[in-house]
Amino acid sequence: MKLKLYNVRGEEAVLAKKWADDNKRLKKLKALTGLPMPKLVL
Questions:
Q1: How far apart are the C-alpha atoms of 31 and 13, rounded to whole Å?
Q2: d(Cα 23, Cα 5) in Å, to the nearest integer?
Q3: Per-residue pLDDT tens for 1-42?
Q4: What pLDDT is recorded for position 10?
Q5: Is residue 16 a contact partner of residue 1, using CB atoms and an 8 Å limit?
Q6: Keyword annotations for this protein (predicted)?
Q7: Which of 37, 28, 36, 2 is nearest to 16 (CA)?
Q8: What is the pTM of this model?
Q9: Nearest Cα to 13, choosing from 25, 3, 23?
Q10: I need a labelling partner for 16 at 20 to 30 A (CA). Which of 4, 25, 36, 42 fits?
C-alpha cells in the first residue's frame, strides 16, 4: 500500500501514522511469535 505523499488533512496524517505504527507493532509481534501477520485493511 502506498501512503499519500501529497497534502492530507491533519486527521488523515494522524491515521496514516497510526497505521504505520500498528504495522510496525504487528511485524515485531510476528518476529517474536513466528505467526503470519494479519493483513490490515483500511
A1: 27
A2: 18
A3: 565 555 556 777 788 888 889 888 888 877 777 666 566 554
A4: 74
A5: no
A6: Oxidoreductase
A7: 2
A8: 0.42
A9: 3
A10: 36
Contacts for 19-24 with beta carbons within 8 Å, 24 or more apart?
A: none
The one-letter code for the residue type at 2 is K
Question: Hunting for cell 497510526 — which residue is that?
Answer: 18
In whole angstroms, what is the distance from residue 18 CA to residue 26 CA?
12
Distance of CA 6 to the CA centre of its chain: 18
Measured in whole angstroms, how far is the alpha carbon of residue 42 from the centre of its chain? 9
Helices then strands, counting H and E runs in the chain, come out as: 1, 0
For the chain, give every domain's residue range. 7-32
